[in-house]
Each structure stands twice: as structure tokens, then as C-alpha cells.
Write a structure and sequence with these properties.
The chain has helices at about 15-40, 45-65, 75-110, 125-155, 160-170, 185-205, 220-240, 245-275, 280-315. It is an all-alpha fold.
Length: about 325
């Protein structure tokens, strides 16, 4: 686990946490302004601003969870709940768009691959069904994205969202802290709380199901891996607040994000394959696509374990 910067040892816990939270609140407000401008202009910058907005919201909510003992607890619990809601709402539209792009790219790649055999009993190849499979996925995911977009617009225009934005605006200048805990030294207050986040992550990683060669595409394990991804994010943000080196944690998190994206893409292809009365070639293409994405899931798991194990054994980085 990364250690805090030496120049923090003489600084109070309230000062360090307050500085981090104010910075993230400022980033949230900046992202909100850019998102509103991008939406009004129809600019692609709106998507990037939405990611920045979500990132700031996650950092604030995770920090309020990890370091809850240093903040005013009732205020922290309330704001954290609202930021989790907002981040999840904003993420849906982007997730559907990214999933469709991922699946279309995979279909195109697989259609030109000589390693993919034609379905038994047919004279065609994967290309026969890939176009129809792509059209089916596009219809389903575009509809889901449209609904998510409507939900986002509704959320951003709601009184609930405006209350969250007002609370973050106040946070940008004033952080409600527990008067006693905030006066403590960083090493005595914040570091032990960050260690708890690291311990939870470590326990979750060690509890992951062992890989099974006989069931390489076992989707039942996805939820456990998603829990690790969430706990890794909490740990990484705690290290950010302490000024630690998060480069290795960031790379590990990217592997788990690829895991989630591939798992959700595989689920989308499986859902499409259950559409009534689709042609056999279309179902075959969707089956190949599902297997391809589950292979990506397994590769992402291996990449994370490769990053985790050396660092975990030496108690550094991840």
C-alpha cells in the first residue's frame, strides 16, 4: 500500500481531506458547466464533460465513505447517497453507446477472421449472420441508450439534481468536518481509515473464485469481480487523497473496467440471441460474439491477477 507524502505528517486530517474534497467539488462544478455547454451546442465535448462530472462525483462519494469519521456523518451520508444516484444515472447512456461500439468492432473483426469456422450444416460463414446480428444489436442498444438519455435529461432537470449541485457548490468552499477527528494527525486518522479500504480490497481479491479450465466462460463469477473493481476504486481514491502513487492502481482498475465492459457486452449478445424467430446464421454470429467477449473477460481477469499478485506479496502499489 502506498504511503502518504512525508510533508503530510505534520498536517491535520481535516486539512488534507478538506483540500481534496474542495478540489473534487470544483472539478464537479467545472464538469457540470462544460456538460451544459456541450449539450446546448450539440458538441462532442459534452460526453467528455459527463465523464469528468461522474469522476468527480465518484471521488467525493468514495472519500465520504472511506473517511466518514472525519466528516460530519449525517451530511456525508446524505451527499454520498445523492452522488451515487447521479453518477449511476449519468453513466447509463455512455455505457450503452460504448457497448454497441465494442460489439460492432468485434463483429467486424470476427467476420474477417479465417479462424472462425462456418456453422455446421450451412454453406455460409460468419459474414452471413453478422450483418443481421449487428442490426439487431443496434436496434436493442440504441433503444436502451435513448431511454437512458431521456432519464439523464430528466435527472438533470430535477429538483433533486439541483439540490445535489447546490450541496457540491457549498462543498467547494466549506467542508463540514467532525471538529475532533479533523484536528488529528494524518498518520493517526486518515491513514488507518485508508488501510481499512485496502484490507477490504485485499480480502475481496483473495476470495475470488479460482479459474476453472472446464468452465472458462462462467458468468456467475462476474459479480465478485465487479465488487473488486468497486473496492479498488475506493482504495485508489483514498490514496489520491493522501497524495500516494496511484499509477499501478489505475492500470489495475483499467483491467477491471475492460472485464466489466466485456462481460456486459457478452450479456447483450446473449440477450439478442434469445430474440424469437431469428435466423440460424444470426444466432450463430451472436454465439461467436458471446464467446469472443467471454474470452476478453478471462483475459482481463488474468491481466489484473498479474498486476495484483507481485504488488500484494510485497505490500506495495496495488
Amino acid at each position: 500500500m502506498a504511503q502518504p507524502n512525508h510533508d503530510l505528517t505534520a498536517t491535520t486530517a481535516g486539512t488534507v481531506l478538506g483540500t481534496y474534497l474542495r478540489a473534487q467539488a470544483t472539478a464537479f462544478l467545472r464538469g457540470l458547466r462544460l456538460h451544459e455547454e456541450g449539450a446546448a451546442n450539440g458538441s462532442a465535448e459534452g460526453s467528455e464533460a459527463a465523464r469528468s462530472l461522474r469522476g468527480a462525483a465518484r471521488r467525493i462519494s468514495c472519500s465520504l465513505s472511506t473517511f466518514r469519521a472525519v466528516a460530519d456523518s449525517s451530511w456525508a451520508d446524505s451527499l454520498r447517497t445523492e452522488l451515487v444516484w447521479l453518477s449511476a444515472t449519468l453513466a447509463d447512456e455512455h455505457a450503452y453507446a460504448a457497448r454497441l461500439l465494442r460489439l460492432m468492432d468485434a463483429l467486424q473483426r470476427l467476420s474477417g477472421s479465417p479462424e472462425v469456422p462456418a456453422p455446421r450444416g450451412t454453406a455460409g460463414s460468419l459474414t452471413v449472420g453478422s450483418a443481421r446480428a449487428g442490426a439487431l444489436l443496434e436496434r436493442q442498444l440504441t433503444l436502451a441508450r435513448t431511454r437512458a438519455h431521456s432519464a439523464t435529461l430528466h435527472a438533470l432537470g430535477s429538483s433533486r439534481f439541483h439540490a445535489v449541485a447546490d450541496a457540491v457548490a457549498v462543498l467547494a468552499s466549506e467542508v463540514p468536518l467532525d471538529p475532533v477527528a479533523a484536528r488529528g494527525r494524518v498518520d493517526d486518522v486518515l491513514v488507518p481509515l485508508a488501510e481499512v479500504a485496502h484490507s477490504r480490497l485485499s480480502a475481496a481479491v483473495h476470495a475470488l473464485p479460482a479459474p476453472s479450465p472446464s468452465h472458462p466462460y462462467d458468468a456467475d463469477h462476474d459479480s465478485a469481480w465487479n465488487d473488486v473493481r468497486r473496492l479498488l476504486r475506493v482504495h485508489r481514491y483514498a490514496q489520491e487523497a493522501l497524495g500516494g502513487d496511484v499509477a499501478r492502481l489505475t492500470v489495475a482498475g483499467e483491467a477491471l473496467t475492460r472485464h466489466r465492459d466485456a462481460a456486459e457486452a457478452a450479456a447483450a449478445s446473449a440477450t439478442a440471441a434469445r430474440t424469437p424467430r431469428i435466423a440460424p446464421a444470426t444466432a450463430y454470429a451472436l454465439g461467436v460474439l458471446h464467446a469472443d467477449q467471454r474470452h476478453e473477460v478471462e483475459a482481463s481477469r488474468a491481466a489484473f491477477q498479474h498486476l495484483w499478485e507481485p504488488a500484494d506479496s510485497s505490500h506495495a502499489g496495488v
